Amino acid sequence: MTETTDSPQPEDTPEEEQPDSEPTLRREEPKAVMLLGSGELSRELALAFQRLGREVVAVDRYANAPAHGVADRSAVVKMNDAEALTAIIDRANPRYVVAESGVIAVDALVAAAERGLEVFPTPRSVRMTQDREGMRRLAADELGLPTAPFWFAGSVDELTAVAEHAGFPLVVKPVAGVPGEGQSVLLRIDDVEAAWQRAVAAGRVPHNRVLAESVVEVDFEITLLTVRTTGPTGPALHFCEPIGHREGDGDVLEAWQPQPLSAPALDAAKSIAARIVNALGGRGVFGVELLVRGDEVYFSDVRVRPHDSGLVTLRSQRLSEFELHTRAILGLHVDTIMISPGAVEVTYAGAESAPVDISSENVNAVLADALAVAESDARPFNRPDETEPRRRLGLALATAPDVTTARDRVRRVTGVLRKLW
After folding, report:
1. pLDDT tens digits for 118-149?
2. d(CA 71, CA 65)
3. CA angle 69, 67, 323 (to 5 degrees)
4. Is the pLDDT of residue 28 over 70?
């Protein structure tokens, strides 16, 4: 375990002697925020906490992570090593521990919570998001949320039996790991063994079970960002305008806000989001992934932290998903006001791809062309981000009077940025 870039500590100053009384020892109340996970999204979160006057300690399994570059202190530790993670939490003595990585030793979070630290998302939420089987059982069996038909399999033979029963196409996912990693679409029985091997080999968490899910014909997929806060009157939920999203060509995620829904579909989406978020508990931003067909809405998944589809809020809302997350965690007022229709495109590459050298003249020329698009923004990333298998190369943002124009603008920005990658 290596700690780096620790802020210098002020020298101790002796207290004035008090006649006829014993010296009083003063211990400051912990107020730092520790981020467990230091990728590009954690970098945005660190800045949001710092703007609200909080010291940030950024932790990850590798050095020079994106959030390390802006944090007040940083550390490198194996995130799935409960003993090592507990030791670094004890040493830093933060008030808040914020889990930002998909692979964290939950036992260390439990220990921190038992010590009286405020842990977000809750250890139970983190454990549930690492376990698709547990999450799907919670959603479908305990809460009765509508979902696509699903099955779990513990071997190639079991998955073959599921495929023969369910028919094709069939989506196969590992029960643990980063969303999208190790996923396959089965189109025939001959695909089963390859899909099984891909799923069980994915991620940094060993597993030998897979989720198989029928493909439901839907009109679109949305993320309903749901902010859970607590106050004198108890928990409260705040909903952002629905965010539409889709995987584009060339390893690009496109998202836009707002995605229009019928009144019955919007009511159903909020009801599903409220039930799953309240079941998980805690404070912060939850990205509830939903499938929409007409007035029908199906639960798909939930992210218990800010995620890529919510990046559109950097421009579309008064408070971004990162500012909402920090405010909710700190117990501050939030609002989900959308100030403009907007769109975002996030471009990815494999972990082996080289970072962008933003110091070159070529980058400046490309950015000049990209930012010439009306109401646009571009963010190339030049630090290695090993938090997910698909490294983010950068993102394009745009706003407009309507979503159609915003999406057109953001595609034009991405088209220019491809010259960098």
Report:
1. 999 999 999 988 888 899 999 999 999 999 99
2. 10
3. 125
4. no
**Measured distance CA(109)–CA(117) in Å, rounded:** 9
Dist CA 82 CA 75 (whole Å) = 15
Task: Enter the tokens of residue 171.
Answer: 């989506």
Residues 310-348 as b or e (16 or more Cβ within 10 Å = b): bbbbbbbbebbbbbbbbbbbbeeebebeeebbbbbbbbb
Between 21-25, 118-122, 262-266, the lowest mean confidence (pLDDT) is in: 21-25
Which CA distances in Å does 359 have to 346, 362, 363, 365, 370? 21, 9, 7, 11, 16
DSSP string, 182-236: T-EEE-SGGGHHHHHHHHHH-SSS----EEEEEPPP-SEEEEEEEEEEEETTEEE
Cα–Cα distance for residue pair 63/384, rounded to 1 Å? 9
Delineate the domains of the chain, giving CATH numbers in brackets.
Answer: 2-6+28-120 (3.40.50.20), 149-214 (3.30.1490.20), 220-420 (3.30.470.20)
Report the first-to-last Cα separation within the chain, whole angstroms. 34
pLDDT at 126: 92
User: 30 preceded by cis ω (within 30°)?
Assistant: no
Distances (CA, A) of 264 to 70, 257, 268: 44, 19, 6
Return the H-helix or E-strand segment holding 278.
helix 263-280
For residues 245 and 252, give the distance between their C-alpha atoms in angstroms, rounded to a whole number: 11
Cα separation of 154 and 213, whole Å? 14
Residue environment code for 26-64, b if the CB has 16+ CB neighbours within 10 A, otherwise e: eeeebebbbbbbbbbbbbbbbbbbbeeebbbbbbbbeee
Contacts 24+ apart (CB under 8 A), 183-189: 185/215, 186/212, 189/160, 189/163, 189/164
The structure tokens listed for 162 are: 């599921």
* C-alpha span between 137 and 155 (Å, rounded): 20
**How far apart, in Å, are the Cα atoms of 361 and each of 51, 366, 367, 376, 414?**
32, 9, 10, 21, 19
Of 340, 301, 303, 348, which is closest to residue 320 (Cα–Cα)?
A: 340
Q: What is the pLDDT of residues 376-402, one digit of tens each?
A: 999 998 777 776 667 889 999 999 999
The Cα-based distances of 267 to 224, 245, 262, 263, 361 in angstroms read 12, 19, 9, 6, 50
Sheet holding 118-120, edge to edge: 2-4, 73-76, 56-60, 33-36, 96-99, 118-120
